[in-house]
Amino acid sequence: MNNKLYRIGQLSKKAELPISTLNHYLNLKLIKPEKVIGSGYRLFSNKTLETILEIQKLKKEYLPLSVIKQQLRKGRELLIKEPSAQYRQLTLPTFEPEYPPITFQFPSTRFQGSKLKLVEWIWQNCKHLDFNSVLDAFGGTACVSYLFKTRGKQVFYNDYLKSNYYIGLALIENSRETLTQEDVEEILKRHPEMKYPTFIQETFKGIYFTDEENEWLDVVVTNIDTLITNIYKKAIAYFALFQSCVIKRPYNLFHRKNLYMRTAKVKRSFGNKITWDTPFPVHFVRFVEQANESIFDNGQKNKAFCTDAFNVKGKYDLVYIDTPYISSKGVGVDYLEFYHFLEGLVKYNKWETLIDWKSKHLRIKHGKSIWNDKNKIYQAFDTLFKKFADSILVVSYRSDGIPSDADLMSLLKKYKAKVIELNRKNYKYVLSNNGESQELLFVAE
Ligand SMILES: C[S@@+](CC[C@H](N)C(=O)[O-])C[C@H]1O[C@@H](n2cnc3c(N)ncnc32)[C@H](O)[C@@H]1O
Fold it and tell me: Does the C-beta of 372 come closer than 6 Å to ligand 1?
């Protein structure tokens, strides 16, 4: 027997089906990987390939996937004996798919405040709600949007950072485009006929990356910007570029001029050095593969926006709100401060005009956001809850932040009749006086 195992890209070639279709089958549990290896890659066997071929054959008989799934479970004899027309006349039982965890196919991202580890818990507490369209107003990595996408909802992703918006485009709005090997080669090579700018090499020398890496960034960002015209392919390329940049940074951030932490010849007690020193193209290709593997069509018209949450237009059945967090000491997470370098990459041609040249780490100029201001944060939440008062509101926050959970509860109660507060461990209806930091979820109907 042939025991060869395939990655999803190889399987897609063998089965002659796009990865998005295979991901759809995975979501419906029609197929499953033989195993998942440490880095998160799924490996499939020839048995899976046979199942896929079987599915394709049954699809030609106009059988819906729900029936195909039942048939695959029962075995093949029935199908051979019974004429397919009979199935077409059957009243189909409602098919309630069981979902695999989304971490299964969501690419690995490093991002302050990501809810990736909490998405299953969020789903457990939302699945009973009656909704189809959902707005993820502070989308970040898009993992919560992706959760809803896997659950068949119509998803609207939003984030005010353009670098994040591209993630929303790549993984949420996009339902079929992937970056091919040829696209990746175009992006990674230096084209002799092109004249490459040297902005990053000159501006950020010694700040975040080595000279050689800065030169690579100037080339690759120019190639993505000028050679990749399809917006979703471009978005996947930016996604892979951002994650490659973040993974090579101490603390995965751009808040300090600290390249020396990577390059200093000191004895280290942690293993990040290998990741930091892994060349950009290696990371880039891996992130492209991961993004490609996560793209699928959920049958809905999903959309990504890039605007301030206060300016999002439209009506949504449910609005998920995961704002930046302000600690009890009043210190807020300033996303533009942390990720300004990625914002600069997507605004490469005008980056120079955006920089605060007085700052040591050459961040992008920006004022203080209402979401980082402990004196204005109540007003911010109040305005947002009012704006989306007709929707079911689902709000993530932390138990030790400003506003407190009691304040959030009373703000929500101004607009909603039924508000439930949950924390990571216990399901509870009353407010907690627990001092430890816990993840909170408010569900307001
Ligand atoms: C806590 S993070 C969201 C994390 C996200 N739920 C996830 O799991 O990856 C907050 C996000 O809000 C975005 N943001 C900050 N201010 C915003 C604003 N005024 N409007 C929209 N998005 C904003 C930040 O860029 C950041 O991505």
Answer: no
CATH architecture of 8-89: Orthogonal Bundle (1.10)
Cβ(138) to ligand 1 under 6 A? yes
Under the banding of pLDDT at 50, 70 and 90, the label for residue 3 is confident
Residues 6+ apart with CB under 8 A from 344: 351, 354, 355, 364
80-96 mean pLDDT = 38
Q: Which atom of ligand 1 is nearest to the CA of 370?
A: 19
Distances (CA, A) of 304 to 134, 139, 221, 240, 299: 12, 9, 22, 18, 16
Q: pLDDT tens digits, residue range 223-245? A: 999 999 999 999 999 999 999 99
Instruction: Please tell me if the CB atom of residue 113 comes closer than 6 angstroms to any atom of ligand 1.
Output: yes
Whether the CB-CB separation of 422 and 373 falls below 8 Å is answered with no
Q: Can you give the pLDDT at residue 68?
A: 79
Domain range annotation of the chain: 8-89, 102-445
Ligand 1 in reach of 143 Cβ (< 6 A): yes
Condensed to tens digits (0 to 9), the pLDDT of residues 121-139 reads 899 899 999 999 999 999 9
Q: Which CATH class is domain 102-445?
A: alpha beta
